[in-house]
Structure formats: structure tokens, C-alpha cells
Design goal:
CATH architecture of the largest domain: Alpha-Beta Barrel
Oligomer: single chain
CATH class of the largest domain: Alpha Beta
Distance between the termini: 78 Å
CATH topology of the largest domain: TIM Barrel
Number of domains: 4
Strand content: 15-25%
Shape: elongated
Mean pLDDT: 90
Largest sheet: 8 strands, parallel, barrel
Radius of gyration: 30 Å
Helix content: 25-40%
Number of strands: 30
Low-confidence stretches: 131-140
């Protein structure tokens, strides 16, 4: 046995060596061997094999003692588990390391010192032989030791790693998963320490973890050591990159969300032991992203290469070294939740009524649950938790998993969408709201609450039990109609999820939602903040643009990222983006808006749509909209975006606006750009042959067309009884519009409310031969079925 090797360097091992070195080390070796040459940076190191662990147990006579400690274990008895786990750890740690194993470990350490200098710091990480399987994740079950330096410190860390195979949570997890304690062995990874304590680190995925959308890379990060992100002790920054356009050469961050990053984990200086501590993150750092766009794009490149090599979606950890400024991959394993979902059934949750919001955070999953809240402040309270309650805690760790499995929903003060609570909630299929800040003080134990993750990125906790419903639809066998069925969508948060509906693209992406929800300020207030006199609004504008060079850059970036996210979600299908169609009273409610908007007695028929775009009073705002759309198409590469002009009253107005767009780099026909117009004014129908010379398609806005055909103000409740899209006059207008588009060989579509509300209107449009119908997401499935049946009846 003396000649047996118990250490393998990373270049000697690969993914087939999981039984020998565990999942973590096998993956590091696989990447070091096969992806280093492709630019993926992995720290060098070595693995102490599972044979080394077994040799340690045999040589020290520890096996019989472990059987004695564990054979009669009752995993349901928490105190018994704690006693036996403590005894097992004492046995393994106390056994020490055989001399031949010690010698081999120290010889390998010398080699790393030759490569990185005598003062090289090490990370000593556990790697269980059953971890990171596609069906079971042992993540977080064993221990890691960082910033290790010196022979004694290294050997002690190895003994502690071996002992951590018997932490209470690891024992409980193995029992739950049906693994034999004596069949699972532990390997240890010893690698160059990446000094992310001086920079940043995080977790990233080669798909979107909430929806399972596979065309994006999702990256999270925070300052300091990665433990905070993994365990959910911080609300991290988030970034998305669109894989198809990235691979075409477009190097742009698709979307970003600033995390609070309230603390960062650093090493404690001047101490003999390898200890870490969380310290407050300076405010100036909290207000900026922890890594640059170049870093994000480098990580996206790594994610694509790693996913391609493994042939499946991956869950990875990264760390940026504050000394050499380089990014390293320190772990990669198969993603085990979102990628396993079957897309044959779509579930859609929705609240039936509004409610009082107690707390908000980041949503995990897309479900809603209600129950009695249980605020838990420590592990000692776990026995009080009742199945079906809503778990409310500052943070969760693997020790909390037994009660998490019985919770209706989970709420934490801290953490982002890759924290422990989020990962376990996804595995369990329960809704979770993480990073809610004050949840443990805002929510009272015993009160009924409703946890909603069905409203986009923001997860909300409501007081009381709010009624909600779930729509379930089988999509696997749904027949596709000849008429294109598109969706109406304005919220980027819902884009990835909505893309799984059977669809032919987006027929109406409303710019207004992004401006009101994300930008929040009037475009001209961002261009001319000096014209805003209210001190509160001035401060609001300053806060909004604090991370951008100026207000114009902020507007262009936010709008392009919002529209870009929708376009990426449906790529390469067409996404028809309507330029802003606020009315003056709506624009005035935006931050700083009152300084730039006239007061009109009837805004519905006033200064709106295309009439604003070339007008001196708004031309600077329209310029920003065009710059954002040019960025989406040219820099992001999302050329599936079709632009649409709303409320084009006259042919001359169309000419003026199209000329303005061409000057701003959005010329119809260039780089495949198509420009549509809304058909919502009777004049559009009457002069359709003239309008058709200027546009590639018409999208009928049934709301305004009905209003103007019947002379009914749709904002007036008094005459609402006269507003009816199914009036014969309105139907004739629809007929003339569809026929006019066909006659001029341009696209005809409808994006108004009528076919979503009235299935018979959808059938009428199909009978007319319309090219596409755009529907609200919640009506897509049932209306598609009606269209299929109608086409069959018509013999198409």
C-alpha cells in the first residue's frame, strides 16, 4: 500500500473520476484539462482521493467506532442526531492522518508553492463522492476552509474536512436521499486561493433559474468571499446575457439589477486561525455594481463554453481575484431544478383581488401560497414549526431543510435568487420571497399571510389570505393555426416565462410600462433637469441617474435593457415594439413631468402618439426613444424588433416622423428594419392605400378604433354602455383595414383588447383573413384553440 497514490492533480482527473475524487474535484479537473486551453480560467490544485479518506479510516481503526456511533440512528430525533453527529466528527478528526498520506499532501503543497510562491494561500474544499449528481445536490453539506497557509494549517484543515462528512445536516441529507453513510466517501480539493475577499464573487447559471429559459446566462455577484451569495446573506447584483446574440459577436449586457450588498465577507487580519468576518459594505460600493460589464461578458463566455462542454445547463461559482484582477471558475455542477421541468403543462397563478402589502423582496418561482406565518429566529425554534405554515426567517442554512420541506412558502430578510432559501424553494416547488429586508419584524407570528411570486421579479407578502386561482393548460398537443397568434407584453420581468406559451412572437410590446415602472422619470426631465423646480423631484432625478453618466444615458440604457429582454425572450420571432403612447396627463405624472406637459381638457384626443415625435416640444424625448431602439437592434443584435408608430393621424405626419427616425439611424429597410403603424383612427382606414406606401404593416388597435368610429370616450364611465368593439360599424372598419393590407401586400395584425375579451371577435378576424392576432397571455391557449377550430371550419 506504500506505493499507492492518494493525491491527483487537476490535470490528472476528469468528470469520470467522481467515485475517486467526488463531484466538485472531478468537475474542476475536467475544466482544467479540457477548457483551460479555451480560455476558461480554473485555479490549479490537487485532489486528495476518496481512497485517501478510506485509507485514513482503515489505518486509524475508525470504522468500527463510526458504526457504533451511527448504526442505530433515529433521524427523526433531532437531539439524538446531534449527539451521534458530534461523536462521529470527533472520531474522524481525532483519528488524524496516516504518515504516508500526510507526506503526499505536503509534497503536493510544495509543488503549488513552486508555481505560486512560498506564500501562496489555499482553499481546502470538501468533495463528496455522491455530490452534484443530476438527481441530488450535496451542495453546502460539507465544510470549506479558506486562506490556508503552512503545513500544520493545511493538515488540520484536511482533518476537519474529513470530519465534516458527518455534520448533522449531511447525515440527515444522506438518510433522506437513501445513501449509505459508509458508501459515501470524501475527497478534498486543495487549490490556489482566489482572493475574492479583495474583490467580488458569486454564482452563475447557463439558464434563467426562475423560468428555465435556456437562451440566457444568469449571473449574480457581491463583494467579498462567495459564501455570502451561496448562503443568501446578501442581496446580490444580478445580470443577464443573451446567448444567441452573444455568440453572433454582440457583447452587451442584456439586463442588470442592483443588489443591496449590505455586507461583505473578508479575512480577519493578524489572527493565527483562518477566520472570516462580515463587515458593512461602504455605501458608495453598495450603490454601484460589484463587477464591470467586461467581467459579466467574460463570465457569459465561460458559461457558454462550460455548458457546451458538459452538454447540459450548468450551475457554477466564480471568484475575482483582487490581486491579479482575473476571474476564476471555482465550481461547476449540473443545474438540477429549472432544467428538469417539463414544458408540456403551463401553470399560471393570479390573485383574484388586491391586498395590503406587508413586505416585498425578490420572487423565487411563479406560484402563490397562503398560510399562517411562523417567524423563526434560531435553529432552537425549529420544533415549533407546523406543516403548512409560511416560514419567515432572516436567512436559512442547510440545517433548516427539515422544516422547509413542510412549509407552504418561505420568506427571508436576506439573500438573492441564488441563495440557499431560493435553491431549496425551487427544488421543493414552493414560492419564496428573498431579500425582503424587514420581513421578520413586519410579519407577526400567527397571522395569516399570502405570498405571491406571480407578479414578476418583485415578490410580495400580503396581509391575510387573498383568494387566488391557478390556470393549468396542456400545450404539448396544441395544434398551431395558420393565423399567427402573438402576445401582448410590456413587463420584461414576465418575458422569459411568457415565451413558453405557444406563440408566433410579440404583437405589442408597450414602451410605456418600462418608462413608468423602471425609468419613472419624464424623458425631458432627464435631458433638462435644470427645468425641474421641485427639490424633491430634483433629488429623485439625481438618485435615478447616479450610476449613469447623465440622464440621457440612463434613459437609453434602461429602455434598451427592458425592450431587449422582451426581444431576447422571443428571439428570433418578431417583437413589435410600439413607441411611447402616453397621453399628456399620463406623462405629467412621471417624475418631473409636470414641467414639460400642457394641461389638456381631452388628452385622449390631444398631444399623443406620432404628433409628439417630430414636434419641437418632444423631439428630444423621441430622440432618446430612437437611440434606445437603435441600441437594441444594432448593439444588442436583436434585429427581431419591429418598430411601430401609434396614433398616426395624417399621411404628412407619417412622412415627418419617418424622416426623423431615418436621421436618427432607424431607416426603414436598413439592417432589415420594418416599421409598422397602429391602425386606430378612421383616417388610417380611409387612406390605407397611401399609408401602406410608408409602412411594412398595420396593427389594428381595436380600442381606439372603436372609440373614434363610435365617437365614445372610452375613459368616460357615463357612456361606457355605447362602447362596443362588436358594433357593425367597427367590424366594417376592421374588414376594410384587413382588405387594404392584403391589397397592398403588407402585414395585417390586431393588438387591441377585443379578441382577448370576445372569442367571437377572434373568429371574425380569422374569417377576414387577418395575418396575426395578438392576445393577452392569459387568453392565448383558449383563443388559439378557437382559431384552430374556426380555420378547420373554413377549410384552411
Amino acid at each position: 500500500m506504500a506505493d499507492k497514490r492518494y493525491v491527483r492533480f487537476f490535470e490528472e482527473i476528469g468528470i469520470d473520476d467522481v467515485p475517486l475524487v467526488g463531484g466538485k474535484n472531478a468537475s474542476l479537473g475536467e475544466m482544467y484539462r479540457h477548457l483551460s486551453g479555451d480560455g476558461v480560467r480554473v485555479p490549479h490544485g490537487f485532489a486528495i482521493t476518496a481512497d485517501g479518506y478510506r485509507h485514513m479510516l482503515e489505518a486509524t481503526g475508525a470504522i468500527a467506532q463510526l458504526h457504533e456511533a451511527l448504526d442505530d440512528l433515529d433521524p427523526s430525533d433531532v437531539s439524538d442526531l446531534a449527539r451521534r453527529g458530534k461523536r462521529a466528527r470527533e472520531i474522524v478528526y481525532g483519528a488524524g492522518l496516516p504518515a504516508d498520506l500526510q507526506s503526499e499532501i505536503l509534497d503536493s503543497y510544495r509543488r503549488l508553492q513552486e508555481e505560486g510562491g512560498e506564500d501562496i494561500r489555499l482553499a481546502v474544499r470538501s468533495s463528496a463522492t455522491a455530490e452534484d449528481l443530476p438527481t441530488a445536490s450535496f451542495a453546502g453539506q460539507q465544510d470549506t476552509y479558506l486562506n490556508v497557509h503552512g503545513d500544520e494549517s493545511l493538515l488540520d484543515s484536511c482533518r476537519r474536512c474529513f470530519a465534516s462528512l458527518f455534520t448533522d445536516r449531511a447525515i440527515h441529507y444522506r438518510v433522506d436521499q437513501g445513501f449509505d453513510h459508509f458508501q459515501v466517501a470524501l475527497s478534498i480539493g486543495v487549490m490556489k486561493m482566489v482572493r475574492s475577499d479583495l474583490s467580488a464573487s458569486g454564482v452563475f447559471f447557463s439558464l434563467d433559474t426562475e423560468s428555465g429559459f435556456r437562451d440566457s446566462v444568469f449571473i449574480t455577484g457581491a463583494y467579498g468571499l462567495g459564501e455570502n451569495v451561496v448562503q443568501g446573506a446578501v442581496d446580490p447584483d444580478e445580470f443577464y446575457v443573451h446567448k444567441p446574440t452573444f455568440e453572433q459577436g454582440h457583447r452587451v449586457v442584456l439586463r442588470r439589477l442592483l443588489g443591496e450588498k449590505a455586507v461583505k465577507m473578508v479575512f480577519v487580519e493578524g489572527e493565527t486561525k483562518n477566520t472570516t468576518r462580515n463587515i458593512p459594505t461602504p455605501y458608495v460600493d453598495r450603490e454601484r455594481f460589484c463587477i464591470t460589464d467586461d467581467d459579466v461578458l467574460e463570465l457569459a463566455d465561460y458559461a457558454i463554453k462550460i455548458e457546451r462542454h458538459y452538454g447540459r445547463p450548468m450551475d457554477m461559482e466564480w471568484a475575482k481575484d483582487g490581486l491579479d484582477g482575473k476571474i476564476y471558475i471555482v465550481q461547476a455542477r449540473p443545474e438540477t431544478v429549472a432544467s428538469q421541468r417539463k414544458a408540456t403543462v403551463i401553470e399560471s397563478y393570479a390573485l383574484d383581488q388586491p391586498g395590503e402589502i406587508i413586505a416585498e423582496g425578490r420572487s423565487v418561482g411563479e406560484k402563490i401560497a397562503a398560510g399562517r406565518a411562523r417567524v423563526m429566529e434560531s435553529l432552537a425554534q425549529l420544533s415549533e414549526f407546523q406543516p403548512g405554515e409560511v416560514l419567515v426567517a432572516d436567512i436559512t442554512t442547510p440545517d433548516w431543510e427539515p422544516v422547509m420541506k413542510t412549509a407552504a412558502a418561505i420568506v427571508t430578510n436576506r439573500g438573492g435568487r441564488t441563495c440557499h432559501a431560493a435553491i431549496i424553494a425551487r427544488e421543493l416547488g414552493v414560492p419564496a420571497v428573498v431579500g425582503a429586508g424587514n420581513a421578520t419584524t413586519a410579519i407577526t407570528s400567527g397571522e395569516s399571510v399570502t405570498v405571491s411570486c406571480a407578479e414578476g421579479d418583485v415578490g410580495r407578502i400580503y396581509r391575510g389570505e387573498i383568494p387566488f386561482h391557478v390556470d393549468r393548460a396542456e400545450i404539448g398537443s396544441l395544434q398551431r393555426p395558420k393565423t399567427k397568434v402573438m402576445v401582448n407584453l410590456g413587463n420584461p420581468d414576465l418575458a422569459f416565462k411568457t415565451s413558453f406559451l405557444p406563440n408566433d412572437g410579440v404583437g405589442l410590446a408597450r414602451m410605456e410600462f418600462i418608462i413608468s415602472e423602471y425609468i419613472k422619470a419624464h424623458p425631458l426631465a432627464l435631458v433638462h433637469p435644470e427645468r425641474v423646480s421641485d427639490p424633491v423631484e430634483q433629488e429623485g432625478l439625481r438618485r435615478l441617474i447616479s450610476r449613469d453618466p447623465d440622464g440621457e444615458s440612463f434613459f437609453v440604457r434602461e429602455l434598451s435593457e427592458g425592450i431587449g429582454t422582451i426581444a431576447a425572450a422571443f428571439w428570433p420571432k418578431p417583437v413589435v415594439v410600439r413607441m411611447s403612447d402616453f397621453k399628456t396627463n399620463e406623462y405629467a405624472t412621471l417624475l418631473g413631468g409636470a414641467a414639460f406637459e400642457p394641461v389638456e381638457s381631452n388628452p385622449m384626443l390631444g398631444f399623443r402618439g406620432a404628433s409628439r415625435y417630430a414636434h419641437p416640444a418632444y423631439v428630444e424625448g423621441f430622440t432618446l426613444e430612437c437611440r434606445a431602439m437603435k441600441r437594441v437592434r444594432d448593439e444588442m443584435g436583436l434585429t427581431n424588433v419591429v418598430l411601430m408608430l401609434p396614433f398616426v393621424r395624417r399621411v404628412q405626419e407619417a412622412d415627418a416622423v419617418l424622416a426623423q427616425m431615418a436621421e436618427l439611424g432607424l431607416k426603414r429597410g436598413e439592417n432589415g428594419l420594418e416599421i409598422y403603424a397602429m391602425c386606430e383612427i378612421p383616417n388610417n382606414v380611409i387612406l390605407i392605400d397611401e399609408f401602406a406606401k410608408r409602412f411594412d404593416g398595420f396593427s389594428i388597435g381595436s380600442n381606439d378604433l372603436t372609440q373614434l368610429t363610435l365617437g365614445v370616450d372610452r375613459d368616460s364611465e357615463i357612456v361606457a354602455f355605447d362602447y362596443d368593439e362588436r358594433d357593425e360599424g367597427v367590424k366594417l372598419m376592421l374588414k376594410l383595414a384587413v382588405e387594404g393590407c392584403a391589397r397592398n401586400q403588407i402585414h395585417s395584425g390586431l393588438c387591441g383588447q377585443a379578441p382577448s375579451d370576445y372569442p367571437d371577435m377572434a373568429e371574425y378576424l380569422v374569417e377576414l383573413g387577418i395575418d396575426s392576432i395578438s392576445l393577452n397571455p392569459d387568453t392565448v391557449l383558449k383563443t388559439t384553440q378557437r382559431i384552430v377550430e374556426c380555420e378547420a371550419r373554413l377549410g384552411r
